[in-house]
Amino acid sequence: MLQKIESTATYIKNRIGDFEPEIGIILGTGLGGLVNEIEVEKQLLYANIPDFPISTLEFHSGKLIFGTLSGKKVVAMQGRLHYYEGYNMQQIIFPVRVMKWLGIKTLFVSNASGALNPDYRKGDLMIIHDHINLQPQNPLIGENEEELGPRFPDMSEPYKLNLIEKALDIAKANNITCHKGVYVAVTGPSLETRAEYRYLRIIGGDAVGMSTVPEVIAANHLGLPVFAVSVLTDEGFPETLKPVSIDDILAVAHEAEPKMTKILKELIAGLDA
């Protein structure tokens, strides 16, 4: 694994020159528009990068974007990988490890998710302060390579509390409805049944999605601080549950994206402080 990471990172470095990103960004379903705010210097297709998994979803672009955002050098994944696409956990977290080898010091993650908390509404944002992993594997299962991180990484603060508080302040200052909650990761790709939504709420979930947690675990293993935000694109309330399509989800994500972008841009701008 370490040899593959180093080889892939070397390939990328040879194509981006002396550009060294300090921030990594993973953009979720329907949330790739943040790229429009980046002063782009280089773009690389996943398909052209050795050992880099290719996003199979038509609404995930599959590009690594290198450039400047809010005065900081960033690398953004425009298109992420999911377990339901058939990838194993090692493949899903591979890009995070490569970004670490490229030089990032902090990881920002976004996703589209379903609301479980009855106080939330679709179109709201939820900053993740903790998670519950219901995906079938932990991405760190297998032989541990000490160069990547410890055998038993601590997960008492998987999402950096200081970044969470700053983001909530930014949301409040801009009159953006933004909650702080617990994200539950499931496999998908089917959406949840009424009974499953009820169960996920009972065990402590505020929102449910099909991504994020493997990458966050890998980032913590690597010693990278993480900030993550969900755009709530549908409502998983058993008593009033209605059919929802991917087109509905994408439409809500597109409408709410400017609010997420506002928070991320200001948070990144003040990162050194």
TrEMBL record:
The purine nucleoside phosphorylases catalyze the phosphorolytic breakdown of the N-glycosidic bond in the beta-(deoxy)ribonucleoside molecules, with the formation of the corresponding free purine bases and pentose-1-phosphate. Residues 23-269 form the Nucleoside phosphorylase domain. The keyword Phosphoprotein applies. This is Purine nucleoside phosphorylase. It comes from Mucilaginibacter polytrichastri. Pathway: Purine metabolism; purine nucleoside salvage. It comes from the Bacteria. Signal peptide: none annotated. GO terms for cellular component: cytoplasm. Belongs to the PNP/MTAP phosphorylase family. It is an enzyme of class 2 (transferase). One of its GO terms (biological process) is nucleoside metabolic process.
